[in-house]
Amino acid sequence: MNLPSFLAGLLGLGGPEVIIILAVLLLLFGGSKLPELAKGLGKSIKEFKQASRDDAPEPSPAAPVPPPAPADKGAPRAG
């Protein structure tokens, strides 16, 4: 999935609007700061997903079924 097309579909933005937004971000933060911002955003999304998985209730395991008792075969024991 291409990010600009994702943004265009999500926000109703076209190609020129996405390019203008990216140019403004480049002017505001500079070329050296953008990779750091993207890395931080990726880390925060990863941590959020991990936390949401950890908070989800885990299904309780089914109680183990005991094995069947061995059947006595043959004549009864005299004892």
Please provide a written account of the structure.
The chain is mostly helical. The chain has a domain at 3-55. Helices cover 58% and strands 0% of the residues. The protein has three helices and no strands. It has helices at residues 3-11, 15-29, 34-55. The model has no long low-confidence stretch (mean pLDDT 75).
H/E element sequence: HHH
Rg on CA atoms, Å: 31 Å
Structural class: mainly alpha
> What portion of residues is helical?
55-70%
Taking all residues together, what is the mean pLDDT?
A: 75
Strand content: under 5%
Largest beta-sheet details: none
Unreliable stretches: none
Name a few traits of the molecule:
single chain, 79 residues, mainly alpha, 3 helices
Furnish the topology, listing elements before pairings.
Elements: H1 3-11, H2 15-29, H3 34-55
What's this, in brief?
The protein is mostly helical and 79 residues long. The protein contains 3 helices and no strands.
